[in-house]
């Protein structure tokens, strides 16, 4: 999914014209180039080396990184949706560097998305890479396309979750995760 920079520049110029702007005015004349560079930057963040560590093989409890700031773009309006991601897994002899969980979130977020697919893609990718006993992903996001246009409902939070493996089959593990992210009433 490489970015075609020249095509993108042309498209942004056309877009500016279509909304009644003058793409040659001072403030806008570099905008097509800036937007194209931004998408190249997003594109670079989509691939990274998911390095595994096998030497921590005796750690078999939950690893949880919570409150990861996350920014994505809704595929319907291309407006941002943003919020927090909480990601947990239970290793099965292999762990990863903690930053890789954040990079995974970013890799799947920086493209036109819907929150449900984003949640599932993060969980499935981590299952594939880490082959853990289980993965849990919870996203809590505000969608600007519901806040600044359309239904005009700012401040709402949409929560989605993807549970895999032991987080689905074992109630105690799921409860521990929910408690740690502050979502359990037990
Ligand atoms: N399920 C889901 N819906 C989303 C997400 N992001 C935006 N949407 C919704 O996608 C829908 C697109 O609906 P349409 O009716 O095709 O578009 P629209 O006429 O612009 O809809 P309104 O936003 O209601 O004005 C809207 O209801 C959005 O709120 C998401 O991540 N997941
Ligand atoms: Zn939208």
Automatic annotation (TrEMBL):
Annotated organism of origin: Thermocrinis ruber
Pfam families xrefs: GTP_cyclohydroI
EC number: 3.5.4.16
PANTHER family: GTP CYCLOHYDROLASE 1 (PTHR11109:SF7), GTP CYCLOHYDROLASE I (PTHR11109)
KW Hydrolase (keyword) present: yes
Top-level EC class: hydrolase
GO CC, one annotated term: cytoplasm
Residue ranges occupied by any GTP cyclohydrolase I domain in the UniProt entry: 9-181
Source organism, top-level taxon: Bacteria
Catalysed reactions listed for this entry: GTP + H2O = 7,8-dihydroneopterin 3'-triphosphate + formate + H(+)
Pathway(s) the chain acts in: Cofactor biosynthesis; 7,8-dihydroneopterin triphosphate biosynthesis; 7,8-dihydroneopterin triphosphate from GTP: step 1/1
Name under which the protein is recorded: GTP cyclohydrolase 1
Keyword Ribosomal protein applies: no
Gene: folE
GO molecular function: GTP binding; GTP cyclohydrolase I activity; zinc ion binding
Family, per entry: Belongs to the GTP cyclohydrolase I family.
Gene Ontology BP terms: one-carbon metabolic process; tetrahydrobiopterin biosynthetic process; tetrahydrofolate biosynthetic process
Binding residue positions for Zn(2+): 74, 77, 145
Quaternary structure annotation from Swiss-Prot or TrEMBL: Homopolymer.
Keywords: GTP-binding, Hydrolase, Metal-binding, Nucleotide-binding, One-carbon metabolism, Zinc
């Amino acid at each position: 999914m490489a970015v075609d920079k020249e095509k993108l520049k042309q498209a942004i110029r056309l877009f500016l014209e279509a909304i009644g702007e003058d793409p040659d005015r001072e403030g806008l004349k570099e905008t097509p180039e800036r937007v194209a560079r931004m998408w190249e930057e997003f594109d670079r963040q989509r691939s990274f080396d998911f390095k595994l560590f096998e030497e921590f093989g005796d750690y078999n409890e939950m690893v949880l990184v919570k409150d990861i700031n996350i920014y994505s773009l809704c595929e319907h309006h291309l407006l941002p949706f943003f919020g927090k991601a909480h990601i947990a897994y239970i290793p099965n002899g292999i762990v990863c560097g903690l930053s890789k969980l954040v990079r995974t979130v970013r890799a799947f977020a920086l493209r036109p998305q819907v929150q449900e697919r984003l949640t599932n893609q993060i969980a499935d990718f981590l299952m594939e890479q880490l082959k853990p006993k289980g993965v849990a992903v919870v996203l809590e996001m505000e969608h600007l396309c519901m806040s600044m246009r359309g239904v005009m409902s700012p401040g709402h939070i949409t929560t989605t979750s993807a549970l895999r493996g032991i987080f689905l089959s074992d109630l105690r593990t799921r409860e521990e995760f929910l408690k740690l992210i502050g979502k359990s009433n037990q």
